[in-house]
Amino acid sequence: MEVVQSHRKSSSNNVTVSTLPLYRSAPPLEVRLEDFELFAMDRLRVLKGISDGLGRGKKPEEMEKLVADLWKANMRHPQANEEANKDIISHFVLRLVYCRTEELRKWFLSMETTLFRYRFRFESSEAQRALMSEFKLPYKAVSNAEFESVKDKLGQVARSMGQTLASADAIFYKVPFEEVPELVAGRRVFICKGHAYVAMNQVVSLVVTQFRSYLSKALILTNRKWTSTVREQEKDRLAPIVEALCTSYLGPDYSQPNEAGEISVKDIDHIAKTSFPLCMRHLFEKVREDHHLKHGGRMQLGLFLKGVGLKLDDALAFWKAEFAPKVSAERFDKEYAYNIRHNYGREGKRTDYTPYSCQKIISSTPGVGDHHGCPYRHFSEENLRAALVRMGVSSRAVEDVVDKVRNRHYQLACTLTFEAVHGSSCDAGINHPNQYFIDSQRILQSKGLCLHTEYCVIWDTFEYSLQLTQSLQWMSLYVPIWFHSLAEFDIKGTGAAGSVFTDTTDGGGSLNPMLIQ
Amino acid sequence: MTTEEAETGRDDMVIDGAEQANAVPDGFDANYLRIYYDGKHPACDRSYFGRREFSFTLENDIYIRFQSFNSVTELENSIKEKCPFKIDIGPVYSVDPAKRHAYAQGGDNVFTPVERELVFDIDITDYDDVRYCCTGADVCLECWPLMTIAIKVIDTALRDDFGFNHILWVYSGRRGVHCWVCDGKARRLTNEQRAAIADYFRVYKGNENSHKKISLPGPVLHPFLARSYTEVLKGFFEAKLLPNQNLLSCQERYEKILEMIPDASVASELRGRWQENKRASMSKDDINLVRWEQLKSVLQSGKQKTQGLRRCVEEVVFSFTYPRLDMEVSKHMNHLLKAPFCVHPKTGRVCVPIDPNNCDEFDPTTVPTLTQLLEELNRGGLRQDAEDELDGTSLGESVKFFRTSFLQPLLKSCKEEIESSYIAKLQQSKNTLSW
C-alpha cells in the first residue's frame, strides 16, 4: 500500500515519529472492502467514546487517558503504515456520513477536534512544531527584547493559573487575540493592544482552532458535493444507506420478537446448541454449570432470551430453576426477580430494555468471575479454539476465525463461525446476537429458500430502514461509484471470495459494509 | 421626570403636527450620524447601509424587525412616519434583510450577519443584591457610580488589552449603559470571538442559591483583574460604596459579607466583635470603614495560612463592584440593541453618550428629556439648518461630543481602511497582471 505520511526522525532515538495527519486531502489508497466498513466503525467507536466522556463531564486529565485508551483499543495496528492509513481512511468515510446536516456536522466536528486536541498533546514538542508550520500559522516568536518588557505580566498570568513561567528562554508566540478565543475566554494569556502572548504549551489551542476551522469548511464542501452531485443520482440506493449509517447505528433492536419466534423453557436447551452465537452459548453453559451468573451475564443473556421470544413468566421460571441449587426460591424472588421484571419493563421506569448489540457486547469489560462480553474479543486464543471446536467448527475454519480475531475483526470472526456452522453464507455479517439467532433459525427451518429473499424478509420484519427489496447485486457497485464521484478513493474489493464487483452470490465472505451497527 | 410627563410629551409629538416636524426627526437626527460612515466613500460598498437591520417598537408594543433602508433619507422618512417608541440597530447582513426570504438557511446563498459592532449592556438591576438605596428600575446618585466603575473597567480593557479605539458609551435612558465598539476589527468578530471577550470580562457566576458568587482562584490575579482592582475597584469600594451603602453597619448587611468568608471560625470571630460593638459609640470614623479595616487585618494577617482567606478581601470587593455584563447581548451578532439618541419611552430621557474620560461627572438625573427638548426647540423657533437646530438645546453638548470624539475619528479610520484595502486590491491585480 502506498503510504502518505510525513515522518520525522526523532533525535533521541532512530525511531521514525510520524506526525498527526491533518486530513487535508484524501490520498490515493487502495482499500479492502471489509476494512472500509470496519475502519469507520472503529473510529466511530472512538468518537462515540469521546462524546460519552465529554457528556459525563470528564476533566482534561481523564479525557487524555480516555482518548489514549480509545485509540489504543480501536485504531492500533501492528504496522505503523497500516495504522496511519486506517486513521486517514476512517476519517474520510465518516466525513461523508456526517456532512449531511448541520447537527451531524457539529457533532463530528466537535469530536474530531477533541480527538485531534488530545492526540496533539501526546506528540513531542518537535512534532508539535512541525505541525504548527504545516498549518502555516503566521505567528512570530516574541523577540528577546519584547519578552523582557512583558516578562512580569507573563509571569503574573502564569502564576494566576498556578503555574510558573518557564525558564528565561521560554518561547512565546504573539498572535492576534481573535486567533485564540479559548485562551482569551479563560484569561489564560496576557493581552496587550489586541495581541495575545501565547506560551508554547498553549500552542495546542492555536493549532486546534486551525484544525477545526479547516475541517468545518471541508465538511461543508463535502456536503455540497454530496447534495449537488451524488445524492440525486443515488436517491434510491445510496441516500437511504448514508442516512442509515448514523441514525440506525443500533440497527434493529430486537425488542419485539415476532410471534413465530416464541420459545418455551424446554426449547432453550435445544436452540442453545443449534442457534445461539458463541457469546450466548457460553453464558448459557456457565449458568448450567455454575447455577449462577453475575449481573453482566444475567443482563446479556437475559435480554437476549427476551429478544428470542422468552416470555416474562418463562424467564422467571428459567432463571429460578437454574439458580435453584444455590439460591432458595425465596431469596430468588427477593434478589433477582425484580431485575428480570425490570428488564421486561414491568418495574421502575418501565423501559422495555433492548437486547445488546454486538457493538455493546464487544465494548463491555468483563471482570473476574464474569462470563459476558464477546468471546472473540475476551477469550484467550486457546479457549476460543476449544470453544469453536465444541461448536463443531472445522479446523480450517477455526484458523480463519482466529486470524480475524488477531486482526480484531470480532464480528467478522463470528460471521465466519456462523457460516462454518450452518454451511451457508451470511452476506450481511453479524451485528447482533439476535440476528445470529434468527438467521440461524431461518436456515434450519426453511430449506431451499434463497438467502436474498430471507434477508429481505428478516429486515422487513424488523422494520429496518434499509430498503433492500431489490436484488443485492447493485450493492457491489455503489461503493466505487460513490467514491469515484467524489474523487476520493479507489476501492478494490478483495474479499475472501474475489472481486465483489462481479458476483455477489459467490458465497464468499464479502460483507455489506454499510450495515454499521 | 414622571411617566405622566413622558406620556404627555409623547402625545404632544403625535397630536401636534407642527411640533412633530421639529421634534421627532431632529431628536433622531444625531442618530443618523452614526451610520454615515457606512456609505460615504466612493470605493465603499454601496449596499452596506441597505443591509443593516433596524427594528422599530411602535405604540402599543408593536414590534417590527428586519427594517432596512437604502439611504438616510429613507430611514428618516420612515421614522417620521411611524414614530417609533424605540429604535434598535442590528447587524449588517449578507443581503438586504427585506429580501431575506429569498435566501436559504444553509448552503451557499445564505442570509446571515456579516458585520456587527461589539456591544455590551450593563443594567443596574443586576446589582440589586448589592445596593440598598434603590431596587429595580430606580437609580439614584448613590448607586449610579456602580455604572461609572463598570465603564472605567471595561473601557480601559477594551483599549489597552484588546486594542480597540472607536468606543461609544451610551446612557440607556433609565438604569444602565450600553457600549458600542465600532472598530472594523470589532465589527467583523465572530460569535465565538465575542463570547471569548465576554468571558474574559466575566467574573461573577452564581445566583441566589450560591453564597459566594465570585471566585478568584490562583495565588495571583490576572493582570487585567489586578489592574482593575488597584486602579478602580478598591478605591471606589472603600471610599464610596462601603460608607454610602452602609455595607457593614447592621447585622443584616454584614452577614452578607461574612457569608463570603470560607472559614467559619474567622467569620464568627468578626461577628462576635461586631455584635458587641453595635451599641457602643466608637470613634467618629464611619463604622463601615472601621469594620472593614478589622476584616482586612484579620483576613490578611500573617497568621492566615490558606490562600483562600487572603484572597477573600478582593473577592468581597469584586462581588460588590466588578461590572456585571449581560453575556447574551455581547455573544451574538444578531442581537439588536437600542440606538443611541433614542428617547426612553418610560422616562423620556434621551440616550446620550457618556464620555468615559469624564464618566464620574455624568448625572443620569439631569439628562435631557423629550419634553424639555420640545420646549427648548419651540422657544428657539424654526431654523434653516436641521443639523444645527439642536445646538441651542441641552442636547447640543452631547451631539457635539458624539461628533467630535467619536464619529469623526471613526469616519477617518473607516476611510483609511477602505482606501488601503482599495489600494491593496489594485496592487494585487497589478501584480497578477505583471508576471
From TrEMBL, chain A:
Keyword Iron among record annotations: yes
UniProt cofactor(s): [4Fe-4S] cluster
Superkingdom of source: Eukaryota
Keyword Flavoprotein assigned: no
Pfam families: DNA_primase_lrg, DNA_primase_lrg_N
Cofactor note: Binds 1 [4Fe-4S] cluster.
Location of the DNA primase large subunit C-terminal domain: 270-437
CDD domains: PriL_PriS_Eukaryotic
Keywords: 4Fe-4S, DNA replication, DNA-binding, Iron, Iron-sulfur, Metal-binding, Primosome
Function summary: DNA primase is the polymerase that synthesizes small RNA primers for the Okazaki fragments made during discontinuous DNA replication.
Family: Belongs to the eukaryotic-type primase large subunit family.
Record protein name field: DNA primase large subunit
From TrEMBL, chain B:
Root EC class: transferase
One Pfam match: DNA_primase_S
EC number(s) from the headed UniProt entry: 2.7.7.-
InterPro entries: DNA_primase_S, DNA_primase_ssu_euk/arc
N-terminal signal peptide: none
Keyword annotations from UniProtKB, A to Z: DNA replication, DNA-directed RNA polymerase, Metal-binding, Nucleotidyltransferase, Primosome, Transcription, Transferase
NCBIfam families reported in the protein's UniProt record: primase_sml (TIGR00335)
Family: Belongs to the eukaryotic-type primase small subunit family.
Designated name of the protein: DNA primase
Origin organism lineage: Eukaryota, Viridiplantae, Streptophyta, Embryophyta, Tracheophyta
